[in-house]
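Input sequence (94 aa), recorded before submission:
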Amino acid sequence: MRTAAKWDTAEFLVSDEDVVAYLNAALEDGDQALVAAALGNIARARGMTQLAKETGITRDGLYKALSPDGNPSFNTVQRVVKALGLKLDVAVPV
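Predicted structure, token format:
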């Protein structure tokens, strides 16, 4: 009997364009848990250990905060986004 392979989004976040499109889609949805999980997937794709060093947040703390059940502070989100080389912009919807 064959089992289905577990889907790991982080494996498919290869380019900066992939990351930006993925995070923007999560932000557009507006679900805070989805945004946290998306940041967690991006962090795993880029390297959680290095991100922990760059943000000054422990690796375990990042995993917890950036899980679907996590509730990261805005400060944590800002630090993670900056360490990933990204920025958040605000725009008027068209």
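Checked by second reader. The chain has one domain: 15-83.
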